[in-house]
Amino acid sequence: QVQLVQSGPEVKKPGASVKVSCKASGYDFSTYGISWVRQAPGQGLDWMGWIGVYDGHTDYAQNFQGRVTMTTDTSTTTAYMELRNLTSDDTAVYYCARDPNLYCSAGTCYPSGAFDYWGQGTLVTVSS
Amino acid sequence: QSALTQPDSVSGSPGQSITLSCTGSSSDVGSYNLVSWFQQHPGKGPKLMIYEVTKRPSGVSDRFSGSKSGNTASLTISGLQAEDEADYYCCSSGGRRSFVLFGGGTKLTVL
Question: How many CB pairs lie under 8 A apart between chains A and B?
Answer without folding.
Answer: 83
